[in-house]
Write a structure and sequence with these properties.
By secondary structure, the chain is mostly helical. About 60% of the residues lie in helices and about 0% in strands. It contains nine helices and no strands. Helix 1 crosses helix 9 and helix 7 packs across helix 9.
Length: about 180
């Protein structure tokens, strides 16, 4: 098994309608405006974590706007964006990574245990080489650590972040045959 463009084409599948909406209209609105609305935060959180997160999400629209404006500002250090987003009530690591991914899918990707474990399996099979170990569902890496491993793999494979992410996720869900 090789982690290459053939793998990505075979496993990535098509995005569902909610993902298409997020990466077209929602992405464009956030990129143009420079912050999220409360409804966009809910939309992204549901896409990544499901309905169960809604009770914990930040309800104050001004706080959502202020925190996301700061996180997405051009002069905010890249490594800090994820941490700023976690200030928002109900926004944990995976939702923060999803926000960054919708905002800038060319440089960000979603932190997900299935993808982490799929990459670790490719590492075990010696199809990719990286340090440090990314861990597993029970021991997830920090987002910045994840990106420093993920980005070079995407470049080497020659795949966009979303396509590689979907391929690894689907392959893991299928039992990593």
């Amino acid at each position: 098994m090789h982690l290459d463009q053939t793998f990505v084409r075979q496993w990535c599948g098509q995005p569902d309608s909610s993902e298409v909406q997020l990466f077209t209209a929602t992405h464009a609105a956030i990129a143009t405006r420079g912050y999220l609305t409360r409804d966009e935060l809910k939309e992204i959180a549901i896409w990544k974590a499901g309905q169960r997160v809604l009770h914990a999400l930040e309800r104050d629209k001004d706080t959502v706007m202020d925190v996301t404006r700061l996180a997405l500002a051009a002069d905010t250090p890249e490594w800090l964006r994820h941490h700023i987003l976690r200030i928002l009530g109900g926004v944990e690591h995976r939702v923060a990574s999803a926000i960054l991914t919708v905002w800038d899918p060319m440089t960000h990707t979603v932190l997900d245990f299935r993808v982490v474990e799929a990459l670790e399996e490719f590492k075990r099979r010696r199809a990719v080489h990286y340090e440090p170990s990314l861990g597993s569902q029970d021991h997830m890496p920090g987002y910045w650590t994840y990106l420093t491993v993920y980005r070079p793999i995407a470049v080497t494979v020659g795949a966009g972040h979303r396509d590689l992410d979907r391929a690894l996720w689907n392959w893991h869900k299928a039992g990593m045959p």
